[in-house]
Design brief:
single chain, alpha+beta, nine-stranded mixed β-sheet, four-stranded mixed β-sheet, 10 helices
Length: 458
């Protein structure tokens, strides 16, 4: 049985205009491409909507295989009841991914010979099984395991467990058809010591077949707890390579950050050569690996932080209020019981409309991330995005002094773009220059040979 495949980390766990605003806010341009989770073979995704001590957590699964083999065990801070668990549609997580993904944008230089005011000079781009229940209960007690709740939600059979010791929990799971990877016992201990419960789910095959769905839908749980954390340690048990985790944190306040590891911003607002337009996915993967290695493989990266009501440039439309509710946002003004996936004891929040999204990307291994992720909300509402700029040269005729100066400045600009790309990705600088020759060689300037010659590319 492929035991932990929901969310690799939780497994066994869980327009086109020039900008003249100040650089910190000049985020316009043509949107070209995005670096979404499709770039990664095993990218787990979690959505956390949190206000004060109230949390709605959505777990997307990347499970591949027979649905009968699917099962998850997720440590949770409290006993969950049926009304605190529901299934949602994968599209919501796809929308969050598309909206917040790092992006590539294009700018086009204006004619330097055009008569303009000084403020309008071309701006540089801003940087279940049937058993005797009584016998089962007796056996469970002997193992120190208590079945706190048992119910069905959608296509999932769910059990909430508490345990006194990890060996008993491991035995219970094995007896109930879960093939536990070697090493689970030791990693279960810290959760039991901290009195956490265990959310155990597997697929009810009859209900799944009747549902007509071809893929397993994300599970969503809601609870109230001072603990703002995400358990990732159990997801490392049978992991043989680095794991990618994308966490979308939705808050009525501002940016969220990791507190027990450093949170750093992904490199952003850099000009790169035009040929990257056709290789943006490979560029972003190489850049991420480079900065991940530079940071000693033990930081979380902020890839996006923005008020959900807007975007600039937009790689996807902001989520609607209905979509935000499906993503777990429970503090919107017009919320209703039907849209609030919480238990009766879940205190209704005061009316709010704001939703701020933080996209955190963690690539982790057991040796570099020995602890679960602990988060905190902040009041910082500063906008940030992973954003990479293609700056197209002006292609018209240039006869004025400003035009001649503009032409003279281009070789240095192109070389700087090449150097920047090499530094970001560790790609060979000469290979980059050769690709730039192919990329920019289509331009029809009479002076282009001189530019290429200056660069050593002609």
């Amino acid at each position: 049985m492929k035991f932990f495949r929901l969310l690799t980390p939780l497994l066994l766990t869980i327009i086109a205009v020039l900008c003249f605003a100040p650089a910190a806010w000049a985020f316009c341009g043509f949107y070209v491409a995005k670096a979404d989770t499709k770039l990664y073979n095993k990218a787990s995704q979690v959505v956390i909507a949190r206000d004060e001590e109230r949390t709605v957590l959505t777990m997307a699964n990347d499970f591949q295989g027979e649905v009968k083999d699917f099962a998850i065990v997720v440590p949770v801070p409290t006993v969950l009841q049926k009304e605190q668990v529901r299934v949602t549609e994968p599209k919501i997580i796809e929308r969050l991914d598309a909206f917040s993904a790092p992006r590539l944008v294009e700018y086009f230089d204006s004619d330097p010979c055009a008569v303009t005011d000084s403020v309008n000079l071309p701006a540089a781009a801003p940087r279940g099984r049937a058993v005797n229940q009584e016998a089962e209960k007796t056996s469970d007690r002997s193992l120190g395991v208590t079945v706190e709740a048992r119910f069905n939600v959608g296509e999932y059979d769910i059990v909430i467990l508490s345990a006194k010791e990890s060996g008993g929990l491991e035995t219970w799971l094995k007896r109930n058809g879960y093939k536990i990877p070697r090493g689970a016992k030791q990693l279960l201990k810290p959760y039991i010591r901290s009195s956490m419960k265990f959310f155990v789910a597997k697929v009810n095959l009859d209900k799944f077949e009747k549902s007509g769905y071809q893929f397993l839908r994300p599970l969503q749980i809601s609870y109230q707890s001072p603990k703002f954390m995400l358990p990732i340690r159990l997801g490392m048990i049978n992991a043989t390579t680095e794991q990618d985790l994308i966490v979308y944190i939705l808050s009525p306040q501002g940016q969220a950050e990791i507190t027990n590891y450093r949170t750093v911003k992904i490199p952003s607002n850099t000009n790169i050569p035009l040929f990257v337009k056709d290789e943006f996915g490979e560029f972003y993967k190489s850049m991420f690996q480079t900065v991940y290695t530079k940071e000693d493989r033990k930081v979380g990266f902020l890839e996006y932080a923005w008020d959900m009501s807007s975007c600039d440039p937009c790689s996807a439309d902001p989520l609607t209020q209905d979509e935000l509710k499906q993503a777990g946002v429970f503090w919107l003004d017009d919320n209703s019981e039907s849209n609030l996936p919480v238990s009766p004891s879940f205190r209704r929040p005061s009316p709010k409309n704001n939703v701020f999204i933080s996209r955190l990307h963690v690539r982790y291994t057991r040796d570099k991330f020995p602890e679960d992720l602990i988060f905190q909300q902040t009041a910082n509402s500063e906008s940030f995005q992973g954003r990479y700029v293609l700056q197209h040269p002006f292609q018209g005729e240039l006869k004025c002094q400003a035009g001649r100066e503009y032409k003279q400045s281009l070789p240095k600009r192109f070389e700087q773009e090449a150097q920047t790309l090499a530094k970001l990705t560790n790609w060979n600088i000469q290979d980059i220059r050769n690709k730039m020759k192919l990329s920019i060689g289509n331009l029809t300037y009479s002076w282009w040979e001189n530019v290429l010659s200056w660069l050593g590319l002609y």
